[in-house]
């Protein structure tokens, strides 16, 4: 399952994502990872949540991002949740269509039973019509 937390920049999506990760890690049977563009939120996350600073890796395209996520899943068979902060930036999709990438994540989610929760800097109206059912929270 891929879920979105949507809202314009500065609306508190990261705070909601961190709170959700901290709540989920207490109940999860598997591992919880949090992908971010820095280590800034390290001390806000429960110490059982694995923080991955994506800027340490050369991800400059959607394919590189999906490959990176696939690598994370392949090395951690107990992965249950993957939180993606600033999804559009992480996946190099700012100003580009997101549907294909989300479909790839949906496929990975179904196959490996990993739940993706992504923050999207866009209004609910900007989310493509066929992806609106992925919106879990709108700010």
Q: Can you describe this structure?
A:
The structure is a single chain. By secondary structure, the chain is an alpha/beta fold. It is built from 4 helices and 6 strands. The longest helix is centred in the N-terminal third of the chain and has 15 residues. It is globular, with a radius of gyration of 14 Å. The relative contact order is 0.26.
Q: Unreliable stretches, pLDDT < 50, 5 or more residues?
A: none
Main sheet, how many strands, which sense, barrel? 6 strands, parallel
Mean pLDDT: 94
Strand fraction equals 15-25%
Look at the helices and sheets and give the structural class.
alpha/beta
Task: Calculate Rg over CA atoms.
Answer: 14 Å
Order of helices and strands: EHEEHEHHEE
Distance between the first and last residues' Cα: 20 Å
Helix content: 25-40%
Shape: globular
Report the count of strand segments: 6
Q: Note the total helix count.
A: 4
Oligomeric state of shown chains: single chain
- Spatially, the strands of the biggest sheet line up as 3-2-4-5-1-6
